[in-house]
Structures are given as C-alpha cells and as structure tokens.
Specification:
The complex is a heterotrimer of chains A (about 325), B (about 750) and C (about 260).
Chain A lengths: L3 E5 L2 E2 L2 E2 L1 H17 L3 E6 L13 E5 L2 H4 L3 H15 L1 E7 L2 H14 L2 E12 L2 E8 L4 E7 L4 E5 L16 E4 L10 E7 L13 E5 L9 H11 L3 E3 L1 H5 L20 E5 L5 H7 L5 E4 L7 H4 L2 E3 L3 H13 L1
Parallel strand pairs in A: 1-4, 1-6, 4-5, 5-11, 6-10, 7-10, 13-14, 13-15, 15-16, 16-17
Antiparallel strand pairs in A: 2-3, 7-8, 8-9
Helix pairs in contact in A: 3-4, 5-9
Chain B lengths: L15 H31 L24 H10 L1 H4 L3 H40 L8 H31 L17 E2 L1 H31 L10 H12 L4 H25 L7 H11 L3 H4 L19 H9 L5 H5 L1 H4 L6 H15 L10 E2 L20 H5 L6 H5 L6 H14 L5 H13 L22 E2 L7 E4 L2 H5 L1 H16 L4 E3 L9 H6 L2 H16 L5 E4 L2 H10 L8 E4 H10 L11 E4 L3 H5 L5 H9 L3 E2 L30 H10 L5 E4 L2 H14 L6 E4 H21 L14
Parallel strand pairs in B: 3-5, 4-5, 4-6, 6-7, 8-9, 8-10, 10-11
Antiparallel strand pairs in B: 1-2
Helix pairs in contact in B: 1-8, 1-11, 2-9, 4-5, 5-6, 6-7, 6-8, 9-11, 11-14, 20-29, 24-26, 27-28
Chain C lengths: L3 E6 L2 E3 L21 E3 L1 H17 L1 E8 L4 H11 L3 E6 L8 H13 L5 E5 L10 H9 L3 E10 L3 E7 L5 E7 L2 E5 L11 H10 L2 E5 L11 E7 L8 E2 L4 H14 L6
Parallel strand pairs in C: 1-4, 1-6, 4-5, 5-11, 6-10, 7-10
Antiparallel strand pairs in C: 2-3, 7-8, 8-9
Helix pairs in contact in C: 2-5, 3-4
C-alpha cells in the first residue's frame, strides 16, 4: 500500500479547471506530509500535462473521445491508475466527474468515499476532513482511518495558485487495453452557444434567483444590469425554467465567476450556487429571508423586497 | 256596411287558397318551434343531475348572505327585469319596455287567435252555424288602445337595443377574442345572428303598424279606429304621404303577407337562435342559486373534474343557452380588463357551441368559425378543460364573482370554471409556482413553504401571551390564516389586532401550529382532495379546542369557514375581524380619538360581494372620525385586486396592467389620504400597486386595523396627557396623521 | 416484446425548511424532531422515468427503505403514474449511509430484472458518495450522474450529462445501467391529493424484507462532530427601506470605484 495522492484532472475545451489546480495544491501538501507522490490522472488532451507541474507523475491516456468525458472510460482508466500507483487518496472536484467517478471508484476500489468536503488536512498519518451536509446547513468533522479514500472536494475554497507550479513531472501513458470492453460510446459534446455573453469576463454581475418569480420580472434586473453596462446572470432555478439561457448560469453546473462585484437578487444561496460565486471581490445580496445562506458569503445584505429595490437601483444608476 | 260594425275583418279580403297557405305555414312554423324546443329540453334532461337541492331546498342560497331562491323571487326578477336593469338603467328599461311590449303583442295575437279560430270557427261557427266575434265594440276599442301601446313600447325599447347592437362601440359588445391573439377565427356569424334578431323583430313590429295603418287608410278612417291610436297615426301619415285608399288596400295585402311570414318565421327561428333566450334566460333565472359559487359543489360522483360533455349539469347546459351575449361579465371581469386571456362571456359561448355541436343541436348563426378544430370547434370527444377552454383561460380567473353578480340571467360561471380547473389539477397541468404553492400547503399546511411550527412566531413580539385555544377555553377563536401569519408585511397587522383585542379585554385564542391553510383558495384552484385534507386537519384542531365563535383575518378563510365548513360539521358563528372591531367600537371597548382624515375603502370580493359584509368596515371607519369617500365601484360591485382564486400563487407578469394597479388608480382620483383595506392579500397587492403607480406618495395603503390602532393610540395618549398635567392647558392636542 | 423496466430508488431526507436540531451527543440530527420529505432529485428521477414510460412504454418500479413518512412518498409516486412501489423493510430504523443503502439495493436488484435504475443525482444527507455511482460500481454496470436527458434505444440508452459551464456530453450506454438524475425534461408533475388518497385506499404498496441489515457507518470514517457552520463571515445588513438601501448600495459600489456618483 502506497502513500500516493491521485488528483483527477478536469478540463473543458482544452482548459484545466481551477478546481483541479486547487486540488493539486492540496494534494501536493498531503503527498508531502505522507511522503508519497502526487499523481495527476489526465484523460484525453495529453498536451495539458505541461500545466501540471505540481504533480510528480502525470498518468495520461490519449484519445479524442476521452476528451469529451465518458464516465465508463474514465472510470476504467482511473481504476487502473489508482491500482497501479499505490494510491491512498484520490481527490476529485464535486462536479459531474466527481459524482460519477468518486462514488463508483470507491465501490470498485474498496475505498471509503467522502463527499462535499470543504476542508482536508493530514493529522499525522491520518486524514481529517470536514464535509458539508444538509445543503450546507451543517458541517461534519470526520477522521479517516481507512487505508484508501476517495474525496470529492467542493471547488472554489482553496487557493488555486498552489497547484499552478512549474515542474516536469514524469509522463506515463496508460495502457489503452484498459478501454477494451466498454459498454458505452461517447456520442458528442456540446458547448452552449454563449450568444456573445461571457459572464466570467464581466467586471460586475447582476444575478437573479428563484425570488424573481417570473420571466417578465427579469426586466427589472435587466434595467439595473443595463445601467451598469454588465450582463445578467442567474442561479439554477432561473435557468431550469428557461427564463435565461444556460450560459448565464452561475454555479457548480454553470460558470464560476469572480467579478469585482456580484449583486445577487432573490438568490437564497444553495451550496452549488455559492461554489460558483463565493470568490467574487464584493458580494451584495438581496433576499427577504434573513436566514438565507447567501448572507453567509455576502459582504453586504438586505432583506428589502427585490421588486422594490431593483427599480430604485435602476433609477440611481441610470443617470 | 263595414263601417257600421266596430270591428275588423280577420284575413279580410283573402281567398281560401291564401288562407290555406297561411294556416299551413303557421302549422309548420309551430311544429318547427316545438321541435327546436324539444331538442333543447331533451338536452337538458340528458345533463347531469344537480348535486345540490334546487329551489327552496335546505341547502340552496346561503343563510344570512343571500335570500333563499324561490319561484316568487324568480318570477319577480323575470317580470320586472330587475336583473337586467341593475347597474344598466337605460338598457334595462329599454329591455323592460320591449319585454312587456312583446308580451302584450303575444297576448294580442293570442286573443285574436282565440276569437277567430276557437270562438269564431269552432264554438260559434261549427257548433252554432254562425261565426261570431267577441272582438267588437268597446272590447275592440280597448284592445287596440292597449296593444297599440304595447307595440309602441316594444319598438321604443327595441330601438335603443338595436342601435347599441349595431354600433357595437361598448366594450362588452366587442366580440374580439382575448384568448386568441393570432386570429384563426371568425365570429361574423355571431354578429349576424345578433343583427338578424333585432332587425327581424323590429321589422315585424314596424310592418305590424304599417299593416294596421294601411287597413285603416283603406277603410277610410272609421271613427272608432281612433282608439287604434298608433295605427291611426300611421294611416294619417301615409295619407299625407299621398297614398290613396286603393293603393293602401293593395299594399295592405302585400305587407300583411310580409308581416305574417316574418312573424311565422320568427316563431320557427326562435329555438335555434339568440331569440331562445326569451325562454332559456327566464328559465335560468328560476333555476339559478346564489349558493354554489360561495359554497362550491363537491366532486360529482367523486370524479375529479369534468372530462367530457356528459359531465355538465342540466343547470350548466341551461346557463349556456341562457346567455344573450350581453357582455356584462366580459365588461367587469378583472382578468379580461387587465389583458388576461379570459372572457367569461366567451367561456360560456365556447362551451355552448361545443356542447350544442357535440349533441347535434341545430342552431342558426350561433357559431364561431375556426380554421382549426380548437376551442368551440373542438371535436365532440375533446377535453372541455384544455381543448375547448384553454388552460391559461381557466387559470386566469380570480373567482372574484363579478361575472356571476353582473349576469342578468343567472349564469353561474365560477362553479363551472372550478369544475374545469379540477380536471387540470387532476392531470397535473398547473404552472410551476402554483404547483409549488400547493405542494407547500400539502406538506407544511401553508402556501409559504414555511415550517408549520413557525405559524405563530409573530406572537413572540407581543408583550403578552395569546391563549392557546387547545389548552384553555376561549370565547373567540382567531383563525389567522397564512398571509397574516407568515408574510412579514402582514405580521405587524396581526400584532396590532392582537394588542387591540388584548386592550379591549376580548377573550380570544389561537390554534397555534395546529392551524392550517383554511383551503378557500385551494378549493377554488380545483385541488379538492387537498381542500378536504385541510378541512379534516382544521376540523380536528378545532375539535381539540374550546371556543364559542370564530373570527378570521382573511376574507377568503372567512368565506370557506363560514359557508363551506358547515358541510363538514362546523357549527359555530364565523365573523370577519372588521365585524368584531365594529362591535367593539360600538360598545366603546376600544377608546379612539377622531382621526379626521379622508379615506376610501376597498371592499374585498370575498367580503363585500361574496358575503355582503359591507357595513361593518364602514362602521369602523365612521367610528374613527374619518371622512369616507366611496370608490366608484363599491360593495357588491367592488373590483378584484387580482389575487383571489389562487391567482396570488400564479405569475401575473403577462398582464397588461394588474387589476390592483387599475383599482388603485381609481382610488387615486378621489383625493384621499388613505386607501383602507380589510384583507391581507389586498394589503400586499395594493401596497405593491401603490408603489408601481407612484401613488404611494400621495395616498397610503392601510389596513383597517392600522387605522383603529392609530386612533386608539391617539386616544390613549390624550388620556395620558389629561391625567398627567392639566396645568398648562395650552396644548390642546394637535392630531398627527403622518 | 417485453416492456422496459425502470427501477427508481427513492429516499426520505430531512425537510430543510425546518430548523435542524442536533441530538444531545451532537452525533446526528434529532430524528424525532425533524420532518422527512422525499429527496427532491429522486422526484426528478421519477419524472424522467414516467416521461420515458409515456413515450415508449415501460414498467416503473419505485423502491425505498422503510424510512419516516416513506409511505406518503411511495403513494405519491403511484399517484403520479408509477406501476409498482416496493418498501424494503427490516434494514434498521436509523439513517442508512450511501454505502449501506447501495449494498442492500444491489442485493435486492440482483434478484430483479431491470433495464435502467434511475435515481436522484444526490441527496442532502449524502456523506459517503452518491447512490448512482456507488450502485453502478457495486453492480458492475455502466452509470452516469448529473443526467439531464435520457433517450431510450434498443439495448441501450443515450444519456445527456451536464458538465461545468453548461457543456453537455451525450453518451450511449448499454443497458442495464444506473443513472443519477439532475433535472428531468420537465418539472416533476403535481400529484393531486385525491389521487394519492386513491392510491392509499387501493393499497398498492408492496412490503418486502430487505436482503440484509444495516451494519453501521462506513469502515474507516469516524464522525467527530456535527455542527452548524460559523456565521463569522456574515454580511453586514443594510437597514432602511428600498430607496435607502439602493442609495447605500450605490455608495458601496462607488467607494470601490465601480460606479461614478
């Protein structure tokens, strides 16, 4: 049994995700503490290995199909990696990949899974973790004594710089024979049409949630956004209702944003949403429920009705 | 010889062939009439039986709210056109003139028929061998005097109605659909049907007088025909116009046939056209019951909502046939006026056309044409809820009851709409926000989705404890309702009311977390199962409590507790807090100082219209020394805020202008300081509307309880000042009305 | 042709509308006090299964363990259109971890024929992984999570998964398979109370002995403490009415140089 830490590299459109770098940083820390290696598991897009300098080893598999993500293929590859390197800890972001692979890998590799981890540190030879539970209403401190652990870690909580290091890790290709008998076939990968909107590049965002209550009410928020000259963004319920197109979504399954100011209206602050915006430089939240979790990450908050506030703001910002 | 006898010759100057033709046509016309009527009657008999006692039954009407329907009151309504004249005096009186004029002419024709055919041909002719007439002498003169008046009344009344129908300038006579914006339909036949009806009737009446005038002219103005004053006048006019007696004699023959053919045609046409309302509307006024709108019918045979043509009751079938397209419901409907996709008139007309075509009831010019088989042109096996009447149309209704109230012929739109909504709910066809609200009510017992345990949290801010009626007996049980319990804007109002009652030593208590949404709106949404569940919960909670009476904050809760819970065994008196406050003020139990401000008062639909509670809130306002300026539409004619019938849980952003905004603008013209409401939903809707319209700067939306509290605080302060220091005496108390 | 069978495992979770109270040891929430409701993602799973049933025909079986108020959830599923509701009893009356739940379900499923297992992508009390992935791993069948679309084919299904940033991937997966549903193609349908009551009086709930008992939490993970997060970073609340708040927000933005006053 080894002491290696494996980080699953997530990438989209040739870009390694921030969460991956966060986890590489954390993995580096833990691998150093335990005297193990940090192994980056990179499936598809082998040329991204150059960015993974924080790792000691990059285990990679090439293949255009892999780049699009196919759960069964990734699982087979990851299982091969963890079994061949002598891993004791696998780190994945709490993303689609993490949900897919974290749980099944734990089942097949006979490891203990930990979900929604928000903090992780070595305690001697053991691992201490903190997990969110009940949509963030409670936290659980956990001591892990299991010899093998698969952690899915919530993104956006760790410094990503720690994982962005120069280095020249060994590159080892995984035997393609691992993918011999798959029952799944990748069909296509679709990137949503952004409609020219890139909410990640905006200096400020006016963001709306369930509290906006109807598509036509978006106009109120749009007026404020127009006055500021910035795009409108939204939390998942608004997108699911079809009130705004997908590229406007902030959160785990949407975009991660870090604007200079994030103005949240009628967003209660589900963990999935907070993950996408908590690193904004300034967060101002408006929600009639004073106990809404959004106020835990916001710098300023108000409980006035958004239908009252938005017109007032539009008026003041419009001049 | 002719001139010697004071009478006229029936079918004078006609050959036996012509007479035979006339009688044959008459027989055919009457046969066609009876066939048409029989088809209608058969249709009603196929309608589902009423699950309510009809007319004078113990469950009809609503005790203490409306009179129990009776034949006498129905007959009164029909004969006086009371419901037609209500709120529309010109049209109403015109209709009354036509109504009685028509009845008079019908009587005249009947008398002539009896005289000529029965008395003349049979009794005297066949049996005694010599035909006689009783239409002679003074009787003939009186007959003409009276029935000329009837004809003139009919023409006068009809003229008003005819001009209105032709002009079609009033919004209620505009047949443009509000639910189909992109065309694909034609209602030209409906318009043509309306025109045919009034024009044909007018032509019959006018030719009648012309025939009479021509006869008098051709007969050389026999002196006794002076009693036939209008006919005489027409004859004189024709004579002045240069028509000679000979020409008149010829024209008389022609016009007589024209008049007779039109009259016979009218008889035949009646059951297939708009004219059938002469019978169906009167019948519907007899059958109508003010009860079911206030106390919705239970599920028919446990079946959740209407799924086919067979589910409509005979009363509903009669309702649909009774509609005259007067458009009063269309005019007053808050959904229609605010740009929503519902016109109660069109809902009735669509169901009528679809049901009639499904049952192959022959009609004339009573159909809307559609390019597709939708709406009224839907196939017989279509779903009434969804296919015939669109979902969004059914959901647009606020159940404010303005349509039922305005309908002059006794159509009950609201129970029909709810029966159709029940089907949509059963199929899960509801919009997400409504679904969420119902799910909240099902799981938490309130529409806010808050924990049931938080229901009485607003009481924590009080410096006394409200009794728990489940633990100790109380005089009055306060049924607070969801909005007044959970909505932060309304919690302050509940606290104010609690303090006033506490200060007035009223013995009252709450059900605390055991109270559930009363279910009025849930029921009107069409979620009958959930309503029953709520009733069971509330009845159980009330069963565990000890109290003598109930009062509510919410007029909607009030309606269901008062009118609907009795079917589930609730037997105590239920009052609205405005009634309680009025009584307490009258009894001097709440000391108040006069406010001296100018206010208007908005009657909540479920209080003013549904339950006819209009005086209590006004008593309160007067007791506070306020000057009350009435809204143009008030009491039972109040205008809905748009929140009722579950609309508060649905998206209203598609409306052109919210009903609440229209209403608050109506108040804005009155130059008052306060807009007083007595319903938590109104408070929410109008506080918003005042802001959106900018009227909040000149007029404040206040609840009745805030007004009372203000006057009470003032009184307490004055008393304190008087007792504290009367040394200065200079400060005579400036009244603050911030 | 034998219709497809879809198994939908559902579970009860604490109603997060309620305040969660901890037990005296701080080791768990107070399960006596809390109210339990259906896991919202399981409702998405059921909706997708029902949509498939309506489109191509399928037998939909809902399965749950004997958890507080689970009968209500199962009857609601029947009212919505599920064909069968199975309650697995005797697995213990405490909280079942994902690992235990998956192990017992895998055993039960081994005696069943099924084409798809569709369950919620997650549950608010998942601490040791999500059901779909774990079950897929244990059964050794393909699986996919964060699924937003399922197109049944013959011997396979094409699933749409949502990745970060709104990117979606479509993968054809051989059946049997396990899917973790994020969002069904339409919002879960409303279950009218009358239909739920009908289902209850029809009594279509099948109680089956669970294939084993819970054996306690996952080996090697010890819960030290359960606690609400500190509210240290709480927002500074702006008081006043809407105009005052708007004024203040503009000031704040201006102070950061984001807008000009």
């Amino acid at each position: 049994m080894g002491n290696d830490v494996v980080v699953v590299v997530e990438h989209d459109g040739g870009v390694v995700s921030d969460t991956t770098f966060e986890l590489l940083g954390k993995g580096r820390e833990l691998a150093d503490a335990w005297g193990g290696r940090l192994v980056a598991a990179l499936f598809g897009e082998p040329e991204l290995a150059g960015e993974l300098g924080a790792a000691d080893v990059v285990r990679f598999a090439a293949g255009a199909e892999l780049g699009g993500y196919c759960p069964e293929a990734w699982e087979a590859l990851l299982l091969n990696v963890v079994e061949s390197v002598g891993a004791r800890l696998v780190l994945i972001g709490t993303s689609t990949v993490g949900m897919d692979l974290g749980s099944s890998l734990a089942a097949r590799w006979h490891a203990a899974p930990l979900s929604y981890v928000v903090a992780l540190r070595a305690d001697g030879d053991q691992l201490l973790a903190t997990s969110q539970i009940y949509a963030g209403k409670l936290l659980a401190d956990l001591r892990v004594t299991a010899p093998r652990v698969v952690v899915t870690h919530i993104g956006g909580l760790l410094p990503s710089d720690a994982g962005r290091r120069a280095g020249s890790p060994a590159r080892e290709e995984i035997d393609p024979g691992v993918l011999g008998s798959l029952k799944s076939a990748f069909k296509e990968r679709r990137v949503p049409d952004g409609g020219g909107v890139d909410i990640t590049a905006a200096p400020m965002l006016v963001s709306v949630g369930r509290g906006i209550a109807g598509q036509d009410n978006l106009e109120l928020a749009q007026e404020v956004a127009d006055a500021l000259g910035v795009p409108l963004s939204a939390s998942r319920p608004v997108i699911d209702q079809g009130w705004l197109p997908k590229p406007h979504q902030v959160g785990k399954s949407g975009k991660k944003v870090k604007p200079k100011a994030y103005l949240a209206f009628g967003i209660s602050g589900a963990p999935e949403h907070l993950e996408g915006m908590r690193n904004s430089e300034l967060i101002i939240a408006c929600n009639t429920d004073p106990s809404a979790p959004i106020f835990d990450v916001a710098h300023y908050g108000t409980t006035v009705d958004l239908f009252d506030l938005l017109p007032e703001l539009a008026e003041r910002l419009g001049d | 010889m002719l001139a010697l006898v004071v009478t006229r010759h029936i079918l004078g100057g006609m050959g036996s062939a012509q007479i035979a033709v006339f009688y044959s046509l008459a027989v055919i016309a009457i046969a066609v009439f009876f066939y048409g009527m029989a088809r209608r009657v058969v249709k009603y008999r196929q309608g589902r039986a009423l699950d309510r006692p009809w007319l004078r039954g113990p469950g009809s009407g609503v005790k203490g709210v409306t009179a129990r329907p009776s034949f006498a009151s129905a007959a009164g309504a029909v004969l006086t056109n009371r419901t037609v004249r209500r709120r529309k005096p010109l049209v109403g009186w015109a209709h009354l003139a036509l109504f009685w004029g028509f009845l008079g002419l019908l009587a005249a024709t009947t008398i002539v028929g009896v005289d000529y055919d029965i008395y003349g041909h049979i009794i005297t002719g066949a049996l005694q061998g010599h035909e006689k007439t009783f239409l002679t002498g003074w009787f003939y003169e009186g007959f003409n005097l009276v029935f000329n008046a009837a004809g003139v009344a009919a023409i006068g009344g009809l003229a008003v109605l005819l001009v209105r129908r032709h002009q079609r300038s009033e919004p209620q006579l505009d047949y443009t659909r509000v639910d189909v914006k992109d065309g694909g339909y034609s209602r030209a036949k409906l318009v043509a049907g309306d025109m045919l009806f009034v024009d044909l009737l007018m032509a019959i009446l006018v030719t009648g007088f012309l025939v009479q005038g021509l006869r008098i002219l051709s007969e050389g103005f026999p002196s006794f025909e002076g009693w036939t004053w209008m006919g005489w006048f027409v004859a004189k006019a024709l004579s002045v116009a240069g028509i000679s007696p000979d020409v008149a004699f010829y024209l008389h023959g022609v016009l007589w046939w024209a008049h007779s053919l039109m009259a016979l045609g009218f008889v035949a046409y009646l059951p297939y056209s708009k004219a059938v309302h002469m019978i169906t509307s009167a019948a519907d006024l007899v059958a109508t019951d003010p009860g079911p709108t206030r106390r919705l019918p239970a599920l028919a045979d446990g079946k959740p909502g209407y799924t086919s043509a067979a589910d409509f009751t005979w009363k509903e079938l009669l309702d649909f046939d009774a509609c005259t397209k007067c458009g009063r419901c269309h005019e007053v409907c808050p959904a229609r006026t605010s740009g929503g996709p519902l016109s109660p008139r069109d809902l009735i007309l669509d169901l009528r056309q679809w049901l009639n075509s499904s049952r192959h009831i022959p009609t004339l010019l009573e159909t809307e044409l559609r390019s597709e088989t939708t709406g009224p042109a839907a196939p017989p096996d279509a779903e009434p809820a969804g296919d015939v009447i669109r979902q969004e149309t059914l959901w647009a209704c606020t159940t404010c009851m303005a349509c039922v109230e305005a309908c002059p012929v006794g159509i009950e739109h609201v129970p029909t709409i709810v029966s159709l909504r029940r089907r949509l709910v059963d199929q899960g066809k509801l919009e997400p926000t409504l679904q969420a609200a119902l799910q909240n009510v099902a799981s938490q017992g309130n529409s806010f989705g808050k924990s049931a345990r938080m229901r009485a949290r607003w009481t924590k801010a009080l410096d006394f404890t409200i009794k728990d009626a489940r633990k100790e007996p109380v005089e009055l049980l306060w049924f607070v309702g969801d909005h007044a319990s959970f909505d932060e804007r309304m919690q302050g109002l509940s606290q104010s009311l609690a303090r006033l009652l506490h200060d007035a030593d009223v013995d009252f208590g709450l059900l605390y977390e055991a109270e559930r949404n009363a279910g009025n709106d849930v029921r009107r949404v069409g979620e009958e199962g959930l309503f029953e569940m709520l009733v069971e919960s509330n009845m159980q909670a009330m069963g565990n409590a000890s109290f003598k009476e109930i009062f509510t904050t919410d007029p909607h809760s009030f309606n269901t507790l008062r009118n609907e819970y009795s079917s589930f065994g609730l037997e105590v008196r239920v009052r609205h807090y405005s009634q309680l406050l009025a009584d307490l003020l009258d009894a001097g139990r709440i000391p108040v100082a006069p406010l001296g401000t100018k206010v208007t008062y908005h009657d909540p639909c479920y209080l003013g219209r549904y339950n006819r509670i209009t005086e209590a809130p006004r008593r309160v306002i007067r007791a506070l020394g306020c000057e009350l300026v009435e809204m143009p539409r008030n009491k039972d004619n109040t205008f809905c805020c748009g929140a009722g019938g579950g609309r508060i849980w649905m998206d209203d952003s598609h409306l052109e202008e919210r009903p609440s905004e229209m209403r608050i603008k109506e108040a804005g013209l009155l130059a008052v300081d306060r807009f007083v409401v007595a319903c938590p939903k109104d408070f929410a809707m109008y506080s918003d509307a005042a802001k959106t319209t900018g009227l909040d700067t000149s007029m404040r939306v206040v609840d009745l309880v805030q007004l009372v509290e203000e006057a009470h605080v003032l009184a307490v302060r004055d008393t304190a000042r008087e007792t504290a220091g009367m040394a200065s005496g200079a400060n005579s108390g400036e009244t603050e009305t911030s | 042709m034998i219709a497809m069978r879809i198994v939908v495992p559902v579970k009860q979770v604490p109603d997060l509308v309620e305040e969660l109270e901890l037990n005296s040891e701080g080791s768990d929430i107070d399960r006596e006090f809390v109210k339990f409701v259906a896991n919202e993602w399981d409702e998405q799973a059921l909706e997708e299964a029902l949509l498939i049933k309506e489109a191509v025909g399928a037998q939909v079986s809902v399965v749950a363990f004997d958890e507080p108020d689970v009968d209500q959830t199962l009857y609601t599923a029947l009212a919505r259109g599920a064909d069968e509701a199975v309650k697995l009893t005797g697995a213990g009356d405490g909280w079942l971890s994902t690992a235990e739940r998956s192990r017992l379900l895998a055993q039960w499923l081994s005696g069943q024929s099924y084409d798809m297992v569709i369950t919620g992508v997650q549950a608010s009390d998942d601490l040791d992984g999500q059901l779909a992935g774990t079950l897929g791993g244990l059964l050794g069948v393909p699986h996919a999570s964060v699924v937003v679309g399922v197109e049944p084919g013959s011997g396979s299904v094409t699933v749409t998964q949502e990745l970060a940033g709104g990117t979606v991937v479509r993968t054809e997966i051989a059946t049997p398979c396990v899917l973790g549903m994020q969002t069904a193609r339409q919002a879960p349908r409303y279950a009218p109370i009358s239909r739920i009551r009908q289902a209850m009086s029809a009594g279509g709930l099948e109680s089956v002995e669970a294939p084993g008992e819970a054996t306690g939490p996952t080996d090697g993970i010890e819960l030290l403490r359960l606690y609400p997060p500190e509210k240290a970073g709480r927002a500074e609340m702006i008081s006043g009415d809407a105009p005052a708040v708007a004024e203040r927000i503009v000031e704040i933005l201006a102070s950061k140089g984001l807008v000009k006053l």
